[in-house]
C-alpha cells in the first residue's frame, strides 16, 4: 500500500526485455535507505518487487501484464520515474490509499496554466471513468491528486508548483500516457452497489452516495 506522495524521482539505468517480461534497473537514493530484497516500490504508480540492489540502484522484475497495462513498457534508459516506498504501519498518510495496481492508462488531452497551477485534462478510459467523482482522489503515475473537474470521457487535475517540481508530471506533454489508478474506496462502493443490483454505469456522485446510504 502506498500514499501517492512521491519520495523522489529515479533514473532508468537499464531495461532488459526478454520475451513477455523484463528486468528494470533504476538509479535512486532515498528509496534505497533500509531497502531489502522483496520490498515493494511504486514505480510510476506500479507496485514492483525489488529483486536486487546496490549502493545507488535497484532492480525489479516486470511481468507481461504490467508491460501491457501500464506505461512501464515505454520506459528506456535515461527516463525519469516517480518512486515511493510502501507505507509503513504508523506512518503518516498525506495523500490517499494507493494500491499500486494500475487500472488503465490515459493520454493527456490538454495542458494549460491557470494562475500558479497547470490544469491537465486526461482521457478517462471506461475502466476508471465510473469511479471518478468531483473532489475525489485519483493517482496519476503514482501521484495522489484531486479530481478538479469531470466531463464525459475525461477528467481534470490541477498541478501546483511543488507537484510539478518534485514529480515527473511537470515534464509531461499533450499525448503522453499516464498510469491511472482510481480510488480504491470508489471501487469498493461500486462493487457493493452492483451486489445491490445498481448498475456500474451510474456515475458515483456525493448525491448518489447520500441517496443510497453511504454518507
Task: Give the secondary structure arrangement, pairings included.
Blueprint: E1 8-18, E2 21-27, E3 40-43, E4 46-53, E5 57-62, H1 64-69, E6 80-85, E7 104-114, E8 117-123, H2 126-129, E9 137-140, E10 143-146, E11 149-151, E12 154-159, H3 161-166, E13 177-182, H4 184-195, H5 206-211
Antiparallel strand pairs: 1-2, 1-6, 2-5, 3-4, 3-6, 4-5, 7-8, 7-13, 8-12, 9-10, 9-13, 11-12
Can you characterise this structure?
The protein has 215 residues and is of the alpha+beta class. It folds into two domains: 8-85, Elongation Factor Tu (Ef-tu), domain 3 (Beta Barrel), CATH 2.40.30.20; 104-206, Beta Barrel (Elongation Factor Tu (Ef-tu), domain 3), CATH 2.40.30. The protein is 16% helix and 39% strand. The protein contains five helices and 13 strands. It has helices at 64-69, 126-129, 161-166, 184-195, 206-211, and strands spanning 8-18, 21-27, 40-43, 46-53, 57-62, 80-85, 104-114, 117-123, 137-140, 143-146, 149-151, 154-159, 177-182. The strands form two sheets. It has a seven-stranded antiparallel sheet with strand order 10-9-13-7-8-12-11. Strand 4 (46-53) and strand 5 (57-62) form a beta hairpin. It is globular. The model has no long low-confidence stretch (mean pLDDT 91).
The helicity comes to: 10-25%
The Cα radius of gyration reads 18 Å
Spans with pLDDT under 50 lasting ≥5 residues? none
By secondary-structure content and strand pairing, the structural class works out as alpha+beta
Shape: globular
Strand elements, count: 13
- What fraction of residues sit in β-strands? 35-45%
Any idea how many domains? 2
Strand order of the largest sheet: 10-9-13-7-8-12-11
Please tell me the CATH architecture of the largest domain by its name. Beta Barrel
Cα-to-Cα separation, first versus last residue: 25 Å
Q: For the record, what CATH class of the largest domain applies? A: Mainly Beta
**Number of helices, where a helix is a run of at least 4 consecutive DSSP H or I residues:** 5
Q: Strand-and-helix sequence, N→C?
A: EEEEEHEEEHEEEEHEHH
Largest sheet: 7 strands, antiparallel
Mean pLDDT: 91
**CATH topology-level name of the largest domain:** Elongation Factor Tu (Ef-tu), domain 3
